[in-house]
């Protein structure tokens, strides 16, 4: 987002996104998150506009009128009230204008239980991307989503039962659920099912003692995703990166207080997918570089491919691993294959697919 015209366009489109509902056709509103990720990978103002127009045409739902006022002293009463998103957004936006974003974020997260699994982790991701874009409206929207769709995972762990490492903690809850079919036709519904399962609550170990639990979580989630590219596991990769952005803004004591909630939410996510079969994984192709991946991701209309590629780029910059590049290559390549297979694929994407396959 160093390109000033692109940053201007990003702000313009994030402002325009306020006319969209929290939900979209068959999904949640991924548009602002994808826009921030696209801008971070070098998308031009024209490309940002093109993605926004596509989203509005194919997925967006109009935000309902806001006919109630939520006071900044009463917002916590709307916890779990999905219909209060718009009013909460306006409440937080007004509060941020007066006090600044970080004090408001801290005040909200200190008052209610941290629920990073809310909206299948998308509320957390939206808040983090709003922080990254320094966009008050998106910060307010992320907070409003966390409160109105609040999904706490009510599990406690015994500090005497600590996972040897992150993978061991995930594996313990996976084995506790065993081969049971976790009911639900969405990530959120399956998270709810696991959260209510006594086997899960009994199996949650305390997080491993580590200098940086977030770094360990980042390594574990990208390792898991590379071995088995499950859709839910993808969300644990992007959510862990989002948590890094969010917690970096907060006082150390509050960030430490919130980490157990993230740990439990990620354990629940892994419990929903059980032990997925590993896929055959090729060694990362040294010919591919991040400039290539960013070009492919910027050409994509798949919001999850865009966000994962961006997450991998950011995490690789911080703590390099060949799995970040390899995972990003795999998902953009699959997206381009799907695009090329469609008879309605835009000529531009078909040409990019040919370029990609010719080289890689």
TrEMBL record:
Superkingdom, taxonomy of origin: Bacteria
Q: Which UniProt keywords apply?
A: Oxidoreductase
Alphabetized InterPro entries for the sequence: Questin_oxidase-like (IPR025337)
The protein in question is named DUF4243 domain-containing protein
Q: Which organism is it from?
A: Paraburkholderia aspalathi
